Structures are given as structure tokens and as C-alpha cells.
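are you around this afternoon, could really use another pair of eyes. what follows is a protein written twice so to speak, once as letters and once as C-alpha cells for the fold. i want to understand how the C-alpha cells follow from the sequence so walk me through it. anything you notice is useful, everything is just below.
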Amino acid sequence: MSDDVSLEPLFNNGRPSAAGGGGARVTSIEEIGAVSNRAAASVTATPQEITIGANKNSIEIENSGSKIIYYGGSGVNSTNGLRLFPNAKKTFAKVKGDFSIFLVCAAGDTSTRRIAEFT
């Protein structure tokens, strides 16, 4: 298991701080559940389907490579896909069990993706 876990989905999603008023909100780990990481993998010009694991409800995708990753439906390509720039993350929260997304790079490009899932 990797030690590089993003806490981005936790920010400002919990109860107000004990101090009251404004400020950051805190979400306890019990409310989030367990985090699991998948092994890093290459993304190429061939669309790669990503599905959410059993009993998971949120998934975070990070582009840890040096090229843009495009994401979308099964026909995604570098023309119609949404861009995930290098060192950027995208979180899909409260998704259904049949969640599916495709990742691809432009022709001739390769990048690396990392995935964390949350219960």
C-alpha cells in the first residue's frame, strides 16, 4: 500500500470545527472509511477502462506522469475527452457500483495514473 494518500476529498466536507463559526471543517475517518490504492499504471493512446471496486463509493484519479490524460466515456480520445493535466487529480464522489470511466493519452504520448478508492 502506498503512503501518498490524498486528503483532498475530506476538505470542507465534514462537521464545522469545534471553535464554531468559519474556518475549516473536520471530517472524522469513521465517516470516510478505508482508503485503498491501486498500483500505478501507464495510460497510452488505447482507451483504458477504470471501474470502482466492490463496496467503494468514491474514486480519485491522479495524473502523476508528464503528459495530459483525457477522460470520458468509451469513445474518449484527445479531441473529445476532458483533460487531466500532469500532477492534477480528479475525484468522483458518491458514485454507483457500475461507475466506469475511460482514460487515454494523445497518439504517441504515455503518462502514468494512480488511483485511490474510498469506502
